[in-house]
Write a structure and sequence with these properties.
Elements (H helix, E strand, L loop, with lengths): L7 E5 L4 H10 L6 E5 L5 H12 L3 E5 L2 E5 L7 E2 L1 H4 L7 H10 L1 E5 L12 H9 L3 E4 L3 E5 L7 E3 L5 H11 L5 E5 L5 H13 L2 E4 L5 E4 L7 E4 L4 H13 L3 E5 L7 H9 L3 E5 L2 E5 L10 E2 L11 H8 L4 E6 L10 H6 L3 E5 L2 E6 L7 E3 L3 H13 L5 E3 L11 H7 L20 E2 L5 E2 L6
Parallel strand pairs: 1-14, 2-13, 5-6, 9-10, 17-18, 21-22
Antiparallel strand pairs: 2-4, 3-4, 6-8, 7-8, 10-12, 11-12, 14-16, 15-16, 18-20, 19-20, 23-24
Bound molecules: ligand EPZ.
Length: about 450
Amino acid sequence: MQGKRELQGEVAVQGSKNAALPIMAAALLHKGSTVLHNCPKISDVFVMEQILRQLGVVTHWEGHSLLLDCRQVCGYSIPASETEKMRASVLLAGSLLGRKKCVCMGYPGGCVIGHRPIDLHLEVFTRMGAYKDEDGKQLKITADSLQGIRYRFPKVSVGATENAVLAAVAGEGWTILENAAREPEVTALCSFLKKMGVRIENDGRGTLCILGGCLLSDVEFAIPPDRIVAGTFLLAGAAMRSRITLLQAPSRQLNSLLTLYKKMGGQYLVSGGTLETDSRGVRCALPLTETGVYPGFPTDLQPLLMAVCCTLQGESRIRENVFDNRFRVAEPLKKMGAKIKIRDTYAEIQGPAVLKGCRVKAMDLRAGAALVIAALYAEGETIIDSCEYIERGYETLYQDINLLGGRIRKENDSIDETETTGIFEKNQTETTGWSAKE
Ligand code: EPZ
């Protein structure tokens, strides 16, 4: 792979998007103040902040610390124009039900990665005594009171688990949730609520017990690092056969990825919050990777792994078991020269492929990140349209990649040769530009 720019150096992992969003919603449960440290400055967080402000919450940033003053929450309605911007808006149902016993909102949006119903969320609310009224556009849920219940999820759902926990905080008595999601972001939400004063027991095997009606207090909480962002940088280093050190990396939450990383030939060293990776030996294809609920391999890293598999020697196969339409990144990767076949829930990737830079379009957040990895590896210029998807979840992805030795530029960025930001340069003659398009 002539002309590859090695990445080299250290990168600090941002706070977790998928922990920050439910925790921001949870702040509504307490008529007081919440301060969240290490809060990622990404567009999904700003959307959630805007919705909270429209409900009467006073917000204030100091660096990466976000103050949420929820003493005055006057509203319980959220327009579809806001809820359709992201999936996590649905979590305001649980917290508004808990705070106001009423919520009127549009349906959630979010990445188009398959059918994303909210039937489990609604099932829990009605089991707790709420009434729902849907007209296909708006969702209205009211409750005279919320009863603690014992409920076993028919399938694991991160969001439905989080919504159930949020509603249970205001329930009467104990709520016992079985077959609940065990993702670290759910654990972070429970840690936050415990710090706020909620009694929660977590057996670590998918059963959560929440005691409703606890006295809540003001709370300060540090958002944990984002395991998917950490995985993104590890996989970018793998594609580029580079040595990258991740600071504030949640290594214990990345066991499934680190196992695969070793299989492909990577080496790593964990010391405290630092994860040193050495990808110089990466070359072996992965016979079969299956995505699954935590602690399985995360579906959110599946598109990025697909991009790395294009660089490996041999046939790799990936099975997507969580979402029913999450192979969309295969199309732009094939446009760049990747050899990928999709058969039902399997993707078969032949490598190593010679990827040529061209104009491609990010279809969703993680597909966009996968295209950044492919663009790093490709020869020639790659332009990634719709990069606003990427900015929903990554605070400083292209600055970080530039600091590691890559070259990335958003089209509306000024080009200053003295600065590290610039266009992707494979070498002096070829470039890969990353253009943001409206
Ligand atoms: C969360 O989405 C994450 N988003 C997703 O990350 C992540 O991919 C997903 O969990 C799985 O880990 C946030 O936390 C904001 P689910 P969520 O409910 O809660 C089905 C990213 O890139 N289901 O666990 O929507 C559903 O269709 C995003 O950061 C129902 O059938 O995921 C899916 O097949 C993408 N009925 C499966 O469960 C329901 O009521 C898992 O979905 C709810 C879900």
